[in-house]
Write a sequence for this structure.
């Protein structure tokens, strides 16, 4: 099924059933009562693991509320969050795009204090469903970005967004991290390390922050899974902030993402058995399939190889692989280290261009 946009949310087929992007077309009264470097804007993070339990949700909400914004386009309503006092806002690409992939012509941003602004699209990346906007405003409060790599299943998280565009401001829900490294694979979106949470997510939540007890963003609320017939509940998905940060940096710096392409389908090494692979590796990225006539195929990569390094950049997981392909664009020649039959081997490939 193709994405249906802001009606019942963008719908895509996954193995589990129907994935509905959490934005809405409800036009109800949803009032949400010098350029810095990309690095300083999007990558101020902490490696400290947040407390697994949110002890004071009220205090956390008050801390978060000024940074969460209400977004409205001609097609519907969504959410975003401020990451810098210069007015940069992160949201989902599908929130500010039409069904045909074209960007919305006008985007209205409403702050928590009721002020409204027209937003400029700085850049958007369909592959990761990440977009960056900017408004010309003063007195903004940015929310800090954390790290998603240290998230633990069972850890409590909180999200805030404009669910169903209800009057009176954003809706707050709390839940736990139900799983990590979930796969979202529906063209053009490919997210290999999505965060699954049981925090309630509804149309209008798309683009909102998923935060831990320390008030730092660990994910961008993106979609909700519905089983066939719409019977599944409590399965929300968020883009991990570790995947989003380098994309945000590149969008702010260049306005677009021009990533290199290897030409593989990949998975976490923990999924080796289900992919009929017998491997001796606890980290890296498992090659589950090699696309014909691509750099990977030309270089000799095979199913069940485990990529562990690209041009001196360690590849411990899918996010690392994406980051390496952001660092090295099309036409660049790179060394790719991988494990096959327990031995580390190296090939040299010239990266292709990844379609966006």
């Amino acid at each position: 099924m193709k994405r249906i946009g802001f009606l019942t949310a963008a719908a895509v087929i996954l193995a589990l059933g129907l994935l509905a992007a959490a934005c809405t077309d409800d036009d109800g009264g949803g009032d949400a009562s010098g350029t810095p470097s990309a690095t300083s804007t999007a990558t101020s993070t902490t490696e400290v693991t947040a407390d697994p339990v949110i002890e004071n949700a009220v205090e956390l909400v008050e801390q978060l509320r000024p940074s969460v914004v209400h977004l409205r386009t001609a097609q519907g309503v969504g959410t975003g969050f401020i990451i810098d006092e210069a007015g940069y806002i992160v949201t989902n690409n599908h929130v500010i795009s039409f069904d045909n992939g074209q960007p919305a012509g006008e985007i209205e941003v409403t702050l928590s204090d009721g002020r409204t602004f027209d937003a400029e699209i700085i850049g958007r990346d369909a592959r990761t469903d990440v977009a960056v906007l900017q408004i010309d405003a003063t007195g903004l409060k940015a929310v800090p970005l954390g790290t998603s790599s240290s998230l633990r299943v069972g850890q409590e998280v909180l999200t805030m967004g404009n669910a169903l565009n209800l009057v009176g401001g954003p809706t707050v829900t709390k839940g736990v991290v139900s799983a990590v490294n979930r796969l979202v694979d529906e063209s053009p979106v490919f997210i290999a390390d999505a965060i699954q949470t049981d925090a309630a997510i509804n149309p209008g939540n798309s683009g909102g922050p998923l935060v831990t007890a320390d008030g730092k963003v660990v994910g961008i609320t993106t979609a909700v899974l519905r089983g066939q017939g719409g019977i599944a509940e409590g399965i929300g998905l968020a883009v991990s902030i570790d995947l989003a940060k380098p994309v945000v940096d590149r969008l702010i710096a260049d306005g677009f993402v021009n990533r290199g392409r290897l030409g593989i389908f990949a998975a976490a090494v923990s999924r080796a058995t289900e992919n009929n692979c017998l491997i001796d590796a606890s980290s890296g990225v498992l090659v589950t399939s090699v696309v014909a006539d691509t750099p990977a195929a030309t270089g000799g990569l095979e199913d069940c190889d485990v990529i562990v390094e690209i041009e001196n950049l360690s590849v411990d997981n899918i996010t690392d692989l994406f980051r390496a392909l952001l660092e090295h664009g099309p036409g660049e020649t790179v060394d790719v280290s991988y494990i096959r039959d327990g031995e580390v081997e190296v090939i040299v490939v010239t990266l292709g261009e990844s379609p966006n």
